[in-house]
Design a protein that fits this description.
By secondary structure, the protein is an alpha+beta fold. The chain has twelve helices and 17 strands. Strand 6 and strand 7 form a beta hairpin. Helix 5 packs parallel to helix 7 and helix 6 packs antiparallel against helix 7. The longest helix is centred in the first third of the chain and has 41 residues.
Length: 477
């Protein structure tokens, strides 16, 4: 209370002193003005003195204006005393082009380490858009989304971060999709996983970035146990994480260029647990198409619930049709159906007639770093454009998944498959090995193809999507 009263008294004394000074200055100004007026009116050179005073005022005003424009709007000097384009630093000039980068580096968990890292980025005129920290037992992993001048290379950024104390730095180009914050992205992936069980591998891929995902079934195609399993809580080993697959077996995720953090492992495990709680689910959207002869067919997603109908279609197909599809013993064709219809290994589209009979299957299969397309059309329904329609839809799924190419394995005598691939109007590569023809379509070019001669009477609003997930090649492609 005493300090408050003392401050108030000091403020009042300062207030009266200021008033006295202003009053004295006012009287002085009036006296000076009166003296100047008497000199101008009664003096012999009054008009000359008045003109000279005006000229001096104009010169003073002009000088003040020039000085203000030169010094008041000058840009602030650089902290290091150098120009932005000196010494290899790239300046972000107004209106200049910029690039987005995703960068991850490890720093020691000490006060000031992160500040030094941010200062190094600032000296290179790099803006930190987002920052996430992942504490580890030794050190902290910092993940940045950076907006840097377009002339600044990845090597320059890495070198600057290393000089500031960053270790094990990894950097790659980013895009506008990376501007979404992590919680929003995770919620979006969880929503997609809740709607479709086949979205789990895709969600893991988008959550963890560039990685390889192996879905290892609990039993092989011959029915023998594979031994693929993982504990309920999962396993994290540096660049590899293993999670229990809700449908049986294990999901192995590998990223050799960058170790996984405990935060990433926890997010991935949460998505798998969500999938396990919701159980099997596939969107039941479908499109009804009319063939040129007037018959209606329905194109929809298929899964293991269609296994009985798919086996019945196998029984109606000729040995030649099955041989062109599976490239192996026809008696073993039924063994592949459970694998092909599982959403963990790809996407399957089914075609059924108005009576509900299954007459065609189209598969988009994950095969290592490549993506395979395969078709099986019942003999009576071949040569009606159904294969071209299925292939067009499968390629659209691959494009949405970001695949660079798709390939089909067939024989040169399978003119229907060759014609369907050529109908995509995409760059094609042909390779023949021991009588087997492999046709690869590059998806970096925009597909230009005409619509099939169908009348589409119903279209689902749900878009199909797929994921490039690594899987071992199976005998029955």
């Amino acid at each position: 209370m005493t300090e408050v009263n003392a401050s108030a008294k000091t403020a009042r004394r300062h207030h009266w002193r200021r008033d006295l000074v202003e009053l004295a200055a006012l009287f002085t100004a009036v006296a000076v003005a009166d003296a100047i007026a008497n000199m101008v009116v009664h003096g012999p050179k009054g008009p000359v003195l008045l003109v000279a005073s005006a000229v001096v005022l104009l010169i003073t005003a002009a000088f003040h204006t020039w000085w203000a424009r030169r010094h008041s709007h000058a840009p602030p000097p650089f902290a290091d005393g150098h120009r932005a384009d000196h010494g290899g630093s790239a300046a972000a000039t107004p209106g200049g082009s910029t690039a987005l980068w995703r960068m991850r580096t490890t720093v020691r968990d000490e006060p000031g380490r992160l500040a030094a890292l941010c200062g190094a980025l600032a000296r290179h005129r790099t803006d930190i858009v987002t920052l996430q920290t992942h504490p580890l037992a030794e050190g902290t992993v910092d993940e940045f989304l950076l907006r840097a001048p377009d002339t600044l290379s990845a090597a320059q950024l890495t070198r600057a971060v290393s000089l500031a104390g960053g270790q094990d730095t990894w950097i790659e180009r980013a895009d506008a999709h990376d501007l979404v914050d992590a919680p929003t992205r995770v919620l979006g992936l969880a929503t997609r996983t809740a709607l479709d069980a086949a979205e789990l591998p895709l969600a893991l891929r988008q959550l963890l970035g560039r990685c390889t995902i192996h879905s290892l079934p609990a039993t092989s195609l011959t029915g023998r146990p594979t031994g693929a399993d993982a504990p309920v809580e999962g396993v994290l080993e540096a660049t590899v994480m293993r999670l229990r697959d809700p449908s049986g077996g294990a999901i192995t995720i590998e990223r050799p260029y960058l170790p996984f953090t405990p935060t990433e492992f926890a997010r991935a495990r949460a998505l798998v647990e969500l999938d396990a709680r919701l159980g099997p689910r596939v969107p039941r959207s479908q499109d009804v198409l009319t063939l040129p002869e007037g018959n209606e067919i329905t194109v929809r997603r298929a899964d293991v619930s269609d296994l009985v109908a798919a086996r019945a279609m196998h029984d109606r197909c000729s040995e030649r049709t099955l041989g062109l599809r599976y490239h192996g013993p026809v008696a073993d064709a039924d063994r592949y159906l459970s694998h092909l219809l599982s959403p963990r290994f790809g996407r399957t589209l089914a075609v059924q007639t108005a009576s509900g009979r299954l007459v065609a299957l189209g598969h988009l299969l994950w095969d290592g770093d490549e993506t395979e397309v395969a078709l099986l059309i019942e003999d009576e329904w071949q040569r009606r454009g159904i294969g071209s329609e299925l292939l067009r839809r499968l390629v659209a799924l691959a494009v949405e998944a970001g695949c660079e190419s798709v390939y089909a394995v067939t024989q040169s005598s399978n003119t229907g498959m060759v014609a369907a691939m050529r109908g995509l109007a995409l760059p094609l590569d042909y390779q023949i090995e021991e009588g087997t023809l492999v046709i690869t379509a590059r998806l970096d070019a925009t597909p230009v193809r005409s619509r099939p001669p169908y009348e589409e009477t119903e279209r689902s609003p749900h878009a199909e999507q797929s994921l490039h997930v690594a899987q071992p090649r199976h005998a029955g492609r």
